[in-house]
Amino acid sequence: MLRNLIRISLILLLILLAIFAPLIVSGYVELEKATSSTSYVEAAEHYQRAALRIPWRKDLYELSGHAYYHARDYLQADAAYQKAFDYQAFSPEGWVAWGDVNYLRDDPQRAAEIWERALDQENPSEHLYSRLAEIYQSEGETSKAAETLQKYASAHPEDASAH
């Protein structure tokens, strides 16, 4: 009985390996293609396919967003960044880029919302403060702009230009 259970388990394991190993390998092939691609759009597409095949690499959605951003395909970049957000796979610079994409799509309110949310993350990018201050100032919220810059200046006492 135990011998049959071991044999069945081994057969099931081999079947699962036969199914998933090629899928995972193809994900790494896609990742290699993305890093060697000469086109940003092509790289973004490879990153997305790799993310689907390598489920523990959700950071690849952010990389896809960056590639679309550099290709100036802001709609696709926004969608890729949204996936990275959904999987909680954002770096501090990813938050900045996601807001930039929305700002460049003429949606400064959404950009500000993203950047404000980014400030609540661990180790936020210092680039958020100037971007938020610019948005607040353009909306006539000078006190909010000054408050944002003050937060940056107090967190970065070595930055003379901030003071």
Please give a structural write-up.
- By secondary structure, the protein is mostly helical.
- The protein has 8 helices and no strands.
- Helix 7 packs antiparallel against helix 8.
- The longest helix is centred in the N-terminal third of the chain and has 35 residues.
- It starts with a helix and ends in an 8-residue tail after the last helix.
- The mean pLDDT is 91.
What characteristics describe this protein?
163 residues; mainly alpha; Serine Threonine Protein Phosphatase 5, Tetratricopeptide repeat; 2 domains; 8 helices; 0% strand
Low-confidence region ranges:
none
CATH domain class name of the largest domain: Mainly Alpha
Sheet having the most strands:
none
Average pLDDT taken over every residue: 91
N-C termini distance: 77 Å
Q: Estimate the global geometry from the Cα principal axes.
A: elongated
Can I get a quick summary?
By secondary structure, the chain is mainly alpha-helical. The protein contains 8 helices and no strands.
Secondary structure layout plus pairing:
Layout: H1 2-36, H2 40-53, H3 59-70, H4 74-86, H5 92-104, H6 108-119, H7 127-138, H8 142-155
Helix pairs in contact: 1-2, 2-3, 3-4, 3-5, 4-5, 5-6, 6-7, 7-8
